[in-house]
Amino acid sequence: MKLKSYIYNSSWNEHLDVSLDSTDTLIIIFGSSDLSLIKEPLNEIKDKFTKSIIIGASSSGEIFMDELYEDTLIVSIIKFKTTKLKLFTNKIKDMSDSFNLGETLSNKLSDKDLKAIFVLSDGLNINGSQLTNGINSKLAQKTVVTGGLAGDGDRFLSTWTIVDGEAKEQYITAVGFYGEDISIGHGFNGGWDKFGISRVVTKSKDNIVYEVDNKPLLDIYKTYLGDKADQLPASALLFPLELQEDINSQEKTVRTILGVNEDNKSIIFAGDIPEGSIVSLMKSNSNRLVDGAYNAAKSVDLSEYKDEDLLCIAISCIGRKLVLKQQTEDELEATLEVLPPKTVQIGFYSYGEISPLNSGACDLHNQTMTLTTIWERDASLT
Predict the structure, then answer these.
(1) What pairing do the DSSP bridges indicate for beta strands 53-59 and 25-32?
(2) Where are the beta strands (DSSP E) in 179-219?
(3) Cα 88–92–97 angle (5° rounding)?
(4) Which of 124, 322, 333, 358 supports an S-S bond with 66, CB 3.0-4.6 Å?
(5) What kind and span of H or E run contains 87?
C-alpha cells in the first residue's frame, strides 16, 4: 500500500498527491469541530479525490506522530494494492436507535472476505455501548472492529463526521476492509485507578444513571468535585466510572460523562450502565496514563508484520488530555516507542473509543488509549 499524511494549519504542509486517488484509496480525516477553520481544505480534498472513500471525525485535539495539534486538519491517504473497501453511512435519528444502527452496519458490511471494520460516529447523539452491542449481534467475533466517537473539546456542543465529502452532524460512518493481504492490529489500555468504595447502581435507564446506593449520582460527583462542580460536565471527566456488570464479571470497562441533568440529578454517560451493575469512581495521574498508552502499544499483535509501511490510528479520550495537560504528547511518544520504525501515527481525542475485548467482541471504552494498526502484506518481504 502507498501511504501519505498531511497537516493543514492555515496551509498544507505539502502539496496533496492526487495520483493516489482511486476506488481502492481510503482518506482518513480528523479535524477541528469549528468548521469555519477547516472548510477550505475539506472542500479541496472532496474536489481533488473524487474516486476515493473519505471518512473522518471532529476532534478534541488532533494527533500527528508524537505531536498534539488544536484546530487543524490531519489527513492520511492510503492507496491499497489488493485490499477492497466498502463504505457505510447512516443518519442517527435518535439515540434510542443506536442498537439498530449497529445491526444495520454489520448487515451492510458483512461478507466472507470481511477482515475488519473501522467506525467513526457522531459523539453526542449515539449510545456507544448499544451501537457496539448491535454490531456484535450480527458479526462474527473474528472480525476486528475499532473506531471512536467524534469530539468537541470540553464543550459538548457539536460534533461531526464526514459524509459524501462533507462534515455533517448526527451521522455514523464505517469502512469495511476485505481481502487476504490486509492486516488490522488493535490494542487498548487505560491507566486509571479505582478509589473510594464500590457502589451498586440502583436506578438507571440505558446510559442515564439516576442513583447509586439509592443516592443521586450527581450529588456524589459534586461532593468529590468541590469547587469544580460548577464546571460540570467537563470537570467530571477527571473522575470516570469503572463498570462491572456483576460481581462475577471478568470484563471491566470505563464510562465517561457526556452531560448532566440538574432537574432530576442524573448523569448521562457515553454508554449503558445497567441497574444492578457495580461502579467505582476512578482517578489517575500523568505517569499512570503514559504507562497505559505504552501498554496499549505493547498489546498490539504485530507477529505478522514484515517491515511494510504501517498506519497507526491512535484514539484517546478527552478525559486523558485534561489530566495530562502539557504532558499530553508524552503518551503519543510512548506508543511510537513500541511500534515499528515505519509507523505513521495519526488520530484524535474523542468522546469514546471502540476496540475489541479479550473475548474478541468489540466494546465501547472511555478514558483509554486505543490503537488501530493497518498495513497491507507485501509478498516480496515474506
Answers:
(1) parallel
(2) 182-189, 193-194, 199-205, 208-212, 215-216
(3) 105
(4) 333
(5) strand 84-91
Question: Do 260 and 166 fall within a single domain?
Answer: no
Tell which residue, 68, 316, 287, 308, has the closest CA to residue 187.
Answer: 316
C-alpha cell at 160: 461531526
Pair 242, 163: CB distance under 8 Å: no
**Spatial separation of the C-alpha atoms in residues 33 and 242, rounded to whole Å:** 28
Name the β-bridge partners of 243.
253, 279
Give the domain extent around 63: 2-189+287-381
Mean pLDDT of successive 10-residue stretches along the chain, which has 382 residues: 96 96 98 95 97 98 97 97 97 94 97 96 94 93 94 92 97 97 95 90 95 95 88 85 80 84 92 93 91 96 94 95 94 98 97 90 92 90 65
pTM: 0.91
Q: Could you give the number of structural domains in the chain?
A: 2
Bridge partners, residue 4, by sequence:
77
Helix (H) or strand (E) holding 3: strand 2-8
Query: What is the DSSP annotation of 323-379?
Result: HHGGGHHHHHHHHHHHS-TTEEEEEEEESEEEEE-TTS-EEEESS-EEEEEEEE--G
CB-count exposure of residue 262 (10 Å: 0-12, 13-18, 19+): exposed
Helix 98-109 / helix 128-137 crossing angle, nearest 10 deg: 40
My answer on whether 268 and 326 are in the same domain is: no
